[in-house]
Amino acid sequence: MSIQVFGLPVSRGVAIGRAVLIASSRVDVAHYFVDGSQIEGEIERLRTARDLVAGELTVLQRDLPAEAPPELSALLDVHLMLLHDETLTGATKHWIRERHYNAEWALSAQLEVLARQFDEMEDEYLRERKADLEQVAERLLRALARGGGSALVPAAAQARDFGGEDPLVLVANDISPADMLQFKRSVFTGFVTDVGGKTSHTAIVARSMDIPAVVGAREASHLIRQDDWVIIDGDAGLVIVDPSPIVLEEYRFRQRQSELERARLNRLRHTPAVTLDGQPVQLMANIELPGDAPAALEAGAVGVGLFRTEFLFMNRTGDLPGEEEQFECYRTVVQSMKGLPVTIRTVDVGADKPLDRMSVQELRHEHALNPALGLRAIRWSLSEPSMFRQQLRAILRASAFGKVRLLLPMVAHLSEIRLTLEALARAKQQLADAGRPFVDVEVGAMIEVPAAALMLPTFLRYFDFVSIGTNDLIQYTLAIDRADEAVAHLYDPWHPAVLRLIAETIAQANAARKDVSVCGEMAGDPQFTELLLAMGLRSFSMHPAQIAAIKQRVLRADTRRHASVLQRVLAADDAETECRLAFQRSEQPAAVTI
Asked: Against a cut of 0.70, is the pTM above it?
């Protein structure tokens, strides 16, 4: 019998495939695929970890004090027995050989399978042994971590080697930014997570990959089993497990229709984005990695409006990237864009994007405080002056190879502006002293906290441009943690306070003749295109996969007519309904040549 699970639709379309589960664990587990030549090495890592844990347990049992209760020795016997049981380590080897999982992922996948079997046992004593199994598995995971891992192999290189002919969808309680980075070019055709909101990191990366995704699906990872057939309806926020043949065929038909629509829109990619009344509009790309730049060009982007550099700092167990490594990455992007502008944002870690390697102070902030309100973005950079100057120097050096703009995240205080500009001046002086070429780049600020929006006239005296980060602006205006599915229904981009802050920011920047763009998720959402144009926005930055759909809306828009109804929309109690009524003519097909 099929099961339906509802969540939040965050990336449109339909995905059909077999489920690959990432089990939740109290121990952080790396998830990546290994090359066929590395399989035996991963199995050897597992064998070494098992022998290490067996030795630890044997020593513990040998050194038990005479007064220790006999039950303790018996418990260690149980742990040793579970450790050598083929249903744990033997089946784990199966996941490595058949699915090309790294050893840690394979072990956590098998733990999930066995844990469910224990939960279904009628005997209470046997059910309680699940805790022993989890303890043994976690000892193994820690032993694997101590022993180090094999080199990460890009998941895309494995294609269908491990998945057979069936498409695969990823199911998890949550997917860390590091894992999402690893899976970015993988074989997965869709994502489902128990937690998360519409602008959580998982949702944003899923949209950048242009694959269907549903987040906040609560119990999905517990209801779905490894290799179940799953349908992900990214439009309705629906996940169907073990669908009937009729339902499967219906969704396959929808997949084909979606592919045809995508192909039709793709023909617009090199058409200039100009409204019906002759207003040129810049449609730029948000990217995470240097390798994303060619896709931005292919999608018709006229530049990179946001290069999220923090992804260079993630998924690293060693040192953070130094100046030379960063410089090479930034230069690659700048050269790949072939003279088009590239806006590079300084590292924005914290909140839903923690680093793997953190100081004691930062860990205390991450766990003891609300990380969204803690040491993140520009605050973190200013607290790490050496790292910050390295990044500034790398960005400045890349400016010698093309048009580069520097963007600062989460600026809220004048003191932050002054300290940042001082750091930038020192970085320039250091490069000049070393004889390294650079260009005096434009500097901009992210407007993503209400304080920055309200202080904009003052901020514009210091900055050459501003970029509105709607994801965080909504979060901080409404006091909603955008990654928390428990309050995700309150995350509302249509809230009148949010729309008025955005409209006022755009108006003030235009009045000061300073460039203004929107680089948050609203920029890539067709529901908001006409409204943002009516507010005076002429620069949008979004994931490359969203450019064609937004361009279609731009080509059908009349900014003069839209501007005439803007105040009515902003004054409405229900802005979404009023916007739909005001701009409904934009939904009618116009004489646009495709």
From this structure: yes
